[in-house]
Amino acid sequence: MRVLFFAGGSYVGGMEAVTLTLMKSLIEAGHPAAAVVSGWNDGVYPGQLAQAGVPYREIKLGRLYRSKPLWTLDSIVNFPMAAIALRRFVREFQPDVLVHVDIHMALVAMTALHSGIPNVFHLH
């Protein structure tokens, strides 16, 4: 089974650590896993993914912020290209399932994809 994770990653916290461990375990068990990482990140999580041998793409999917209008504007401006990049990565990786670790990113990703791929929510 090929598993694509929407792994957050703007900075490394507990959610990212747990998700990285899960991806590494799946790969070791023979299940290809890959990650979509926030395009707004500090570089630490992408480095950890690369070191662990987990393929990933940094994509600026963004989200809507009630109290940060400039962040919301940046998300809206970047969404069309992010949606294209996400669809391309999904076509290349061909996942059997999408795993979301954040409800906000799940909504954005599902909006961008419009796919029939099953979605799993792993809430930390």
Characterization of the model:
Helix content is 48%, strand content 17%. Strand 2 (33-38), helix 2 and strand 3 (56-59) form a beta-alpha-beta unit. The mean pLDDT is 90. It is globular, with a radius of gyration of 14 Å. By secondary structure, the protein is α/β, with parallel strands linked by helices.
Strand content: 15-25%
Q: What strand order characterises the main sheet?
A: 3-2-1-4-5
**Shape, per Cα inertia axes:** globular
Look at the helices and sheets and give the structural class. Answer: alpha/beta
Helix content, binned percent: 40-55%
Arithmetic mean pLDDT: 90
Can you lay out the helices and strands and say which pair or pack?
Elements: E1 3-6, H1 14-28, E2 33-38, H2 44-52, E3 56-59, H3 69-93, E4 97-100, H4 103-113, E5 119-121
Parallel strand pairs: 1-2, 1-4, 2-3, 4-5
Brief synopsis:
This protein is an alpha/beta fold and 124 residues long.
